[in-house]
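quick q for whoever's on today - can somebody do inverse folding on this one?? i tried earlier but teh output was garbage lol. tokens:
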């Protein structure tokens, strides 16, 4: 299970949504005016979301 943190001071939200588009597990979703992480236990730790984020707003920390 991974700890996925979105820094809302840096995140551009649904106007960006780059991470939402690339996540292969559909963990990152738009909810209202925010991008949120759901079902984080299904994260495969591919780190693609961190790679595409233009603002370094998202952090994935693998947890045992
Ligand atoms: S690390 Fe991969 S699977 Fe996990 S939230 Fe990011 S893009 Fe999705
Ligand atoms: S890619 Fe980064 S800035 Fe864009 S919605 Fe995701 S966390 Fe926010």
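ok took a stab at it. sequence:
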């Amino acid at each position: 299970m991974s700890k996925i943190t979105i820094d809302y001071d840096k995140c551009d939200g649904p106007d960006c949504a780059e991470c939402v588009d690339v996540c292969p597990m559909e963990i990152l979703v738009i909810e209202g005016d925010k991008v949120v992480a759901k079902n984080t236990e299904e994260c495969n730790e591919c780190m693609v979301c961190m790679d595409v984020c233009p603002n370094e707003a998202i952090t994935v920390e693998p947890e045992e």
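fwiw The domain at 2-62 is CATH 3.30.70.20 (Alpha-Beta Plaits). also The first strand starts at residue 2 and ends at 6. so keep that in mind when u check it
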